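Retro notes, item 3 of 5
We never archived the inputs for the beta-D-ribofuranose complex last cycle. Fixing that now. Sequence and ligand:
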Amino acid sequence: MTGTIPLILDVDTGIDDSLALLYAAASPEAEIVAVTCVGGNVDAHQVERNTRSVLELAGRTDIEVALGRDRPIVRPIETTPETHGPQGLGHAELPPPSRPLSDRNGVDVIIDAARRRPGEITLVTCGPLTNLAIALLREPELPHLLKGWVLMGGAYRHPGNTAPTTEWNIHCDPEAAKIAFAAWGESATANGHPRAVALGLDVTEQAKIVPDDVVALARAAGSTPDDSLALARGEDPMQATRSVASNPIVRYIADALRFYMEFHARYDGFYGAFIHDPLAVAAALDPSLIRTRTIAVDIELGGTLTTGETVADWRGVWGQPPNVDVAVEADAPEFMRRFVERVGRLAAARST
Ligand code: BDR
Ligand code: CA
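Structure as it came back at the time:
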């Protein structure tokens, strides 16, 4: 598949990362140059296995998958099996990948691709910013070599999901986030900063998937049964069964999402799930899905309660050049429509 928008996806797959991979694979305008892996939702080695298995499910064995750094820059690794399941894919179990992992390091993959195609590639980070930070330490020109950087990360005018003011991807490696946000600030000129777009929880929590969306996706894929039963039973985990949908992608999504929906029912009060990372990929492909405000953002490192907070200078009191376009609004209904339609179409094409 050759799209016109070259992307590198840096992921910590993870249920919503896996849906972001499926969305990218389902988007004809996306050219997925490579996928790089970082520890976060699960251990980095599990991340790369999940990533290869999900891409294989999507029929995309042509894409290079590379493992980057397997732990944060200075902190010990933290993972979140209660959110994403012990292996990171909820209740789903995918066959082990048959395509090998790249023998290159993920950080090299990012730097080499950006140098080879200056000004062309958009890096979308869906996990902690460890790989990007190391890439920046080794290639400080990266903000100019990339076409842009789109991240799912931070909580701007919104509570955190890991600590009261802290979002998970920044929480896991705040030192890396500090390096990355500062690099875009240092690269700013009188004419602005290289493109960096942040989608925080205030917009990604609008991207809510509910069982009806999965049923619609299953129907778009021509899958039978349409999984309404399997997902509804998810409200009572003791009654739940694995999806018996005829379509492998639908089966995967139903089983992975049932876990995520059970988690959100426990912690967020609704039976459904926020699909943060796919919204970031969708916005990288079509910026009209979000509205942004350009401001200076820095990362708290020395807080006693707030380490990892994305501190956003909405009033410009620092007098610093802005470094990030922070998403303040998203067209979530249009995104959800595209998600169901695109991933449903991909599933239909992979129905055998
Ligand atoms: C982010 O944290 C992870 O658990 C998700 O994959 C997403 O990237 C949301 O805070
Ligand atoms: Ca993620």
